[in-house]
Write a structure and sequence with these properties.
6-stranded mixed sheet, 7-stranded mixed sheet, about 40% helix
């Protein structure tokens, strides 16, 4: 038996377009001698359709697309899609050959944690599905089913000698290692080889990285598809096991994070039909990295950067920004904001009275920049990319309606320490970020001689506390026991709590960690628990 693993990039809701893509992959695979094409989870609809799954018309469109795919002959199709039977909905896989339905499998284990909400939409399945293809008996599983022993054991008891798993497993750092380990455990328990087919593409804040693979009976990786790229790959089954196939080396964690961000930007802009992007350059590391990612994702011709200096903007910030845009060849403009700031202050000073200057005046500068970028966005149709990072989102060191104004927050889930690692990695591929931007101490440049570390713990400390509290759910006491200063832990977690209202109003951005400030972070704004 020859399996074709279809690692492809669907668009949520484009059911006819996704079906056409699957049909093309099926014909290509058939012509290459494949007997079975395996698609990812919910391949027909994309993952996740969310509340589209509550609409009857959605299932009518899925049914019509399945009817069209029934016309393909000469190859067995294993197609992921939602299905409704009476009052119940299922995350399903249908096996089709030559106009006949050989079986319909319903996902047994429904994830309801992190970014997943499948219990809201689906009922769990209860029965295995095994179909015969030549001399092989193929058991079908869907995603979470491979993360526990029962579904694989049920398929084995039903006679399976090979397992195929349809997946829409979103990316976060180090996720590939976890997937492989789960599959190896199932292989060890059942003695059956496992082919794991994963979705590729960006969907709002989620990124699906592909990285499909196969595990042979001895636990060795028999095939490895690339991450962050579509691919149709072939896997031969002989004597109940996989014949070794192509193995694409996986990127290291920093490269994987960079490529995930590029894919997230490319698909968010492309799938939503924006003609390009705008962003404000500051001469700092965050906007520089955001610019590099945007150009790598979209090309220089679809990126427009705007430098908006004030009297506090250092000359080297302007010089470094000009240097970077020359290296990248993008459209670039400069707008001085100080005359506008003075006009605002002339109107506001009578109302401020004798109150001393504080963060109000600093935030006003940022909000002027946000207004300018949004005006350019309205005129051009381009989406504004915000440049704030996860460390800033944690502590509230970002201005609501200022540098938080925009449509997609590229670094929303990227800690400041990782920002530097990503910048260094990108420059190894060809230096686009001027060295001085990376080496300078970070500053918002909203008042004289301002540095981030004047009012925050060092970023390596801040980011470590953030990771322990946000991603690992550790208590304040446990974090202090790890060796961090109680004053730093108290400050970071207090800032995290009081700035929840800001994060609720921030644009979405790509998720690359185990826990981002998005679907998997649901804390009340009004909250007195400490």
């Amino acid at each position: 038996m020859r399996l074709a693993l279809a690692q492809f990039n669907p668009i949520v809701g484009d059911i006819a377009g996704n079906a056409e893509k699957i049909a093309g992959l099926a014909r290509t695979a058939r012509d290459a001698g494949a007997d079975v094409l395996v698609t990812p989870e919910l391949a027909l609809t994309g993952y996740s359709p969310e509340d589209l799954l509550l609409r009857p018309a959605f299932y009518q469109a899925v049914h019509a697309a399945l009817d069209k795919l029934m016309e393909i002959d000469g190859i067995t199709l294993v197609i992921g899609h939602p299905v409704q039977h009476g009052n119940e909905r299922f995350n399903a896989a249908t096996v089709i050959r030559d106009g006949n339905i050989l079986g319909e499998y319903h996902k047994m284990r429904l994830p309801n944690e992190e970014v997943f909400d499948e219990v809201r939409y689906f009922s769990p399945g209860a029965a295995p599905l095994v179909f015969t293809q030549g001399d092989s008996k193929v058991g079908v599983l869907i995603c979470e089913d491979i993360w526990g022993p029962e579904p694989a054991a049920a398929a084995q008891d039903a006679g399976a000698d090979v397992l195929v798993v349809l997946n829409a497993s979103p990316f976060h750092r180090e996720k590939t290692v976890v997937r492989m380990q789960e599959c190896r455990w199932r292989v060890e328990e059942t003695g059956l080889p496992v082919a794991y087919v994963n979705l590729i593409g960006g969907q709002d804040e989620l990124i699906f990285d592909g990285g499909s693979f196969a595990v042979a009976r001895d636990g060795a990786i028999a095939a490895q598809l690339p991450q962050f790229a579509e691919q149709l790959a072939y896997l031969d089954v002989e004597n109940g096991d996989f014949r070794p196939a192509d193995i694409t080396p996986l990127p290291d964690p920093v490269e994987a994070a960079y490529r995930a961000l590029v894919l997230g930007v490319r698909d968010y802009i492309g799938k939503n039909g924006f003609p390009g992007v705008l962003l404000g350059l500051s001469g700092g590391i965050d906007s520089a990295l955001t610019l590099a990612i945007a150009v790598d994702a979209l090309g220089a011709d679809r990126v427009h950067a705007v430098m908006m200096p004030s009297r506090y903007t250092a000359d080297i910030s302007v010089d470094d920004s000009r240097d970077m845009v020359r290296r990248l060849g993008i459209k670039y403009d400069e707008i001085a904001i100080w005359p506008m700031y003075e006009s605002f202050m002339a109107a506001l000073t009578p109302l401020f009275g004798d109150r001393p200057a504080d963060a109000t005046e600093e935030n006003l500068q940022s909000r002027i920049r946000g207004v300018l970028l949004m005006a350019l966005s309205n005129k051009s149709g381009k989406l504004v990319l915000t440049t704030g990072n996860k460390s800033e989102m944690t502590t509230g060191y970002a201005t609501l309606y200022g540098d938080m104004a925009g449509g997609f927050a590229v670094l929303r889930d990227v800690a400041k320490t990782l920002v530097y690692e990503l910048a260094e990695w990108r420059n190894l591929q060809g230096e686009v970020i001027p060295r001085r931007i990376i080496d300078r101490a970070p500053s918002a440049e909203l008042r004289p001689d301002q540095l981030d570390q004047d009012s925050l713990p060092p970023y390596d400390v801040l980011d470590a506390i953030m990771a322990e509290y946000v991603e690992m759910n550790r208590s304040l006491e446990d974090i202090v026991d790890l060796g961090y200063q109680a004053t730093d832990v108290d400050k970071v977690t207090r800032l995290l709590k009081i700035n929840e209202y800001k994060r609720r109003q921030a644009p979405i951005g790509p998720r690359i960690t185990h826990r981002a400030f998005g679907k998997d972070w649901r804390y009340p704004i009004t909250n007195r628990f400490s």
